[in-house]
Amino acid sequence: MRKELEAKHQQEIILYMNKNYFKTHIIFSVPNEIPYPLPPKIMVDILSRLQQNGLLKGASDLVILCPDKRYITVEVKTSTGSQSPEQIIFQKRVELINGNYFLVRSLEDFIKQVVPIL
User: Fold this and answer.
1) Is 72 within 8 Å of 102 (Cβ atoms)?
2) What pLDDT does 47 receive?
3) What is the pTM of this model?
4) What residues contact residue 100 under an 8 Å CB cut-off, 6+ apart?
5) Mean pLDDT in each 10-residue stretch from start to end of the chain (118 residues)?
């Protein structure tokens, strides 16, 4: 249920951005999860292939490219969701290189936190 709610929030954010900022910004998702349920052998094979192709554990759900060459990373959580240790490391790495990292819990939260800096 929690993953479905996160996915719903993420879809709302994508729709909002594409409706309001399509000509000036690029937003895309980072597919960093394997859809469940899959047999363990298939999951191991998929995970191995994704890691070989650059999968980064903890990477944010969304990336926004801005016209002034900035980028924004957005982690989407439910109202009670928390970051994994890998997500915290990713956030620190983004901030270390002066990137913008946001944790949002709804479209309204995204509009309040992220939209003002677009």
Assistant:
1) yes
2) 81
3) 0.90
4) 70, 71, 72, 73, 94, 117
5) 84 98 97 76 85 90 97 96 96 97 98 98
What is the dihedral sign for C-alpha 57, 58, 62, 67? negative
39's tokens: 């047999």
Cα–Cα distances (Å) from 29 to 44, 45, 88, 113, in that order, read: 22, 22, 18, 18
For tokens 């554990």, what's the residue? 57
Question: Long-range CB contacts (< 8 A, 24+ apart) of 108-114?
Answer: 110/9, 110/13, 110/16, 110/74, 111/16, 114/64, 114/72, 114/74
Beta-bridge partner residues of 93: none
pLDDT at 51: 83
**Residue with structure tokens 């394997």?**
34
